[in-house]
Amino acid sequence: VHSGEITGLNVTIPFKQTVIPLLDDLTPTAKAIGAVNTISKQNGKLIGENTDSAGFLADLQKFLAKVKWERKEKKNALVLGGGGSARAISYALVNDGWIVTLAIRRPENAKDFLAQFSDYESRISSIKYQNNAIRSLFPHLQLIVNATPVGMSPKIENSPWSADLSFPQKAVIYDLVYHPHDTKFVLDARAAGLPAITGLGMLVEQAALAFELWTGYDVPREHLFTAVEET
After folding, report:
1. Does the global pTM surpass 0.90?
2. Which end of the chain is less crowded, N or C, counting CB atoms within 10 A of the terminal residue's CB?
3. What are the phi and psi torsion angles at 42 (to 5°)?
4. What is the pLDDT of residue 4?
């Protein structure tokens, strides 16, 4: 760090998968997910890691505790999207005991996604990103996660959730998009009476984990929250 050399960096959409061939190695977590959001330089080699997964789960658990979410025997989640972020979220959820259904627009993306998660085939599946397919999940759905960039500034009028689709009655909504502060998806879900949150907490958690990886130092999350909210 003092020499001015870069010792690490973050990777964001749409490069979380395409960056992998440029790296020397992946951590077991990044390899299992098939996506990288954090790169560190170790012994002259570039190592790919994924802190999105742990960062998301940490923030989700805080949110569920805050809204006093009632834990069910079977936890069912719908993840919108099939990119690198969706992979990290799905990895976190299946390892936390959730049954995950992915809504993916392109069949070839769904096939590739499920192949990456073949070890979890009993707990992860995909449907077409269409209203009827999504609506069929409503009776058992407890969590919906938007892992697409739809609704991100400057196109804040957009939402990954169709205007023709209602919300399930007892689901919790988590939108990975954190800019704007309240996305249309989140505002619409709240208007329907559902607990909903954006991905600002995940942004902070994954950044803190990356910082610890690069420096070996723990960073107070509240300081990061303050810095992010002031920008």
Report:
1. yes
2. C
3. -130, 120
4. 60
